[in-house]
Amino acid sequence: MFWQPKEWRNSRAKGQHYELLAQDYLQKQGLTPVARNYNCRFGELDLIMKDGLTWVFVEVKFRRQQGFGGALYALTERKQQRLRRTIAHYVQKHDLAHCILRADYVAIEGQSAPQFHWIKNVL
Fold it and tell me: Is the N or the C terminus of the chain less surrounded, counting Cβ atoms within 10 Å?
C-alpha cells in the first residue's frame, strides 16, 4: 500500500484536496472561483467558477494511476446525467437561465507530480 497522510484515509478529505488543486490550476488559467461542493438532491458540483461572463461548472476526478484509462475516462454517462440535473438545479435556484453556461472536466493523474487535463464543454 502506498503512503498517504492520515487525513486522506477519508476519501472526502482526499477529494477536497484535489478539488483545491484543480481550483488553483483553473485560477492560474484566469477563472474566478464562485463556490465549491454545491449539493442538492441530484448530486454535487465540485467547483463553480466564472470565465469572464461564462459560468463554469467543473467536475474534478483524481486517479493515482492510469489503469482502466485513468482519470480521463472516469466521467461515466451516469455521472454526466447527474451533473446535468445538478447544474439545472443550481441554474434555476440562482436565476442563471439567461447566462452563458459551460461544464468542464478536470482530470488529475499522479500523486507526486500531478498532471492536469482540462477538458472544456464536456456536456
Answer: N
How does DSSP assign 47-97, residue by residue? Answer: EEEEETTEEEEEEEEEESS-GGGGGGG---HHHHHHHHHHHHHHHHHTT-T
Read off the pLDDT of residues 35-49 as tens digits, 9 standing for 90 and up: 999 999 999 999 999
Cα–Cα distances in Å, from 1 out to 4, 9, 92, 112? 9, 12, 44, 15
Query: How many other CB atoms are there within 10 angstroms of residue 121's CB atom?
Result: 9
Residues 123 and 83: beta-carbon distance below 8 Å: yes
Q: What is the pLDDT of residue 100?
A: 97
CA–CA dist 36, 119 (Å, integer) = 19
* Spatial separation of the C-alpha atoms in residues 90 and 84, rounded to whole Å: 10
Would you list the domain boundaries of the chain? 9-119
* pTM assigned to the model: 0.84
DSSP H or E stretch at residue 11: helix 11-28
**Contact (Cβ atoms closer than 8 angstroms) between residue 12 and residue 20:** no
The owner of cell 493515482 is: 64
